[in-house]
Write a structure and sequence with these properties.
Strand 1 and strand 2 form a beta hairpin. The protein is an alpha/beta fold. Strands 3-2-1-4-5 form a five-stranded mixed sheet, covered by helices on one side. 12% of the residues are buried. It has three helices and five strands. The chain is 30% helix and 19% strand. It has a domain of 77 residues: 2-Layer Sandwich (Nucleotidyltransferase, domain 5).
């Protein structure tokens, strides 16, 4: 009597642990790879000689909150009023420095509108500080 072998399929490669092998290779290459940092161009930046604050009468403070409300020296104004007010202040003091302080989440469109108003009246001495953070409902 002759018995037949019942063989289905052919040769196969077991792939059950393939994911583990790939994961270990990935970790190996991540640990052993050295990334070259780009040096760039050598640049010597200017340094401030002293951090002297200007006199209070030489500075006009413009505050803007996240709702685009504008305050110039503690007086709430509209965007269109920034130019005439700054013109008047520049006539009184041509060395005026505009301290422009905005809320961290302020809209850049409103900031740009104020900067355009300052540019029109030739208020070019501007200091920026965006660390001001207004409260939700208050200015």
């Amino acid at each position: 009597m002759k018995f037949e072998r019942n063989q289905k399929g052919g040769e196969s490669i077991p792939t059950a642990s393939m994911g583990d092998i790939v994961f270990l290779l990935l970790i190996f290459f991540m640990v052993t790879t050295v990334f070259k940092t780009e040096d760039g161009l050598p640049v010597d930046l200017p340094r401030a000689e002293s951090g002297v604050e200007p006199k209070r009468e030489l500075v006009a403070n413009i505050y803007m909150d996240r709702k685009c409300r504008i305050s110039i020296n503690d007086k709430i104004v509209g965007t269109a009023q920034v130019g005439p007010i700054m013109t008047q202040k520049l006539e009184q003091n041509p060395l005026l420095i505009v301290a422009f302080q905005t809320d961290v989440k302020a809209d850049y469109r409103c900031m740009d509108d104020i900067m355009e108003e300052l540019k029109l009246v030739n208020a070019v001495r501007v200091s920026f500080n965006n660390k001001f953070q207004s409260s939700q409902g208050k200015f």
